[in-house]
Amino acid sequence: MAKRLFVQAISAALSNGNLPGWLTGRLYQGSTKSVCVPGLNCYSCPGALGACPVGSWQSAMSGAVPRFPLYVLGLLLLFALAFGRTVCGWLCPFGLVQDVLHRVPVPKLERKPWMRSLARLRWAMLALTAVGAYLMYLATGTGKPLFCAWICPAGTLEGALPLLALRPEIFASAGWLTVWKGALLAIFLLAMTAIYRPFCRFLCPLGLWYGFWNRLALFGVAVDEAKCVHCGRCAAVCPMDADIAGDAHCISCGRCLPACPTSAISFRHADRKKVQNEHGGASQ
């Protein structure tokens, strides 16, 4: 767990390393801002050095003339085939926020059937992200990044709140939508303390996309079918509602490795004994 938090922290720092932005509230506009990072990281964050793939997709589909974002799709495919949902577990800055808040010592809500049902909302969020802006264009003549504008709590936490704090003059442009997104963020922040990664599990369209490719990705948790006895212990300890290690819900956190009685689970391209020793005492 400590190693994963360290990698997450490094990833968040690299994605948001524009130090002058954190002091002035001015967005970085350099060449790297046109490159998407793998995880959910708001373009409007004062520290952001890259672009969010979800925001980039919607921005291309918005405006007066929508453009199909082949470049963004190519990067999303590259990230998915390389890492799958390992991006969610190890590289996403908003995933780090959720992991840290879940360590707050309050009573926890373990896996419940209704949580798996709520996960279906991600399909609606994926549809809203993929075609919502274009449907708005067809209806009104101008597209709008609906998921970013109406829903995304990562954008509110990483972008809106720091900008409001650093540049008080933009308060004048804040309206009911800012209040709505602030309330939604507050609900999620509270939920994160009691429920493991509620945004990832219930709403994130990016995690759903990466989950499609989990079993094909170069890196991540995998199961040796020849050794697996289908005992269900990996599912029992999984905080993400996976049915078996490495499925579409798995974020490769490593909690299942010491739980497997036959050592059938490992990280791809990793020495199995080394990985198991590293995770033997890990806890979420």
What is the compact description of this entry?
The protein is mainly alpha-helical and 284 residues long. The chain is built from 15 helices and two strands.
Give a written overview of the molecule.
The protein is mostly helical. The protein has two domains: 210 residues, no CATH class; 65 residues, Alpha-Beta Plaits, CATH 3.30.70. 52% of the residues lie in helices and 2% in strands. It has 15 helices and two strands. It has a two-stranded antiparallel ribbon. The chain starts with a helix and ends in a 5-residue tail after the last helix.
Instruction: Give helix % range.
Output: 40-55%
Note the main sheet: 2 strands, antiparallel
Radius of gyration, in Å, reads: 19 Å
Which term fits the overall shape?
globular
Strand order of the largest sheet: 1-2
Give the CA-CA distance, first to last residue.
7 Å
What does the secondary structure layout of this molecule look like, with pairings?
Elements lengths: L1 H14 L3 H6 L28 H9 L8 H14 L2 H6 L1 H9 L11 H6 L2 H20 L5 H6 L1 H14 L9 H19 L3 H5 L2 H8 L8 E3 L9 H5 L27 E3 L4 H8 L5
Antiparallel strand pairs: 1-2
Helix pairs in contact: 1-6, 3-8, 4-13, 8-13, 10-11
Give structural attributes.
284 residues, mainly alpha, Alpha-Beta Plaits, 2 domains, 52% helix, globular, disordered C terminus
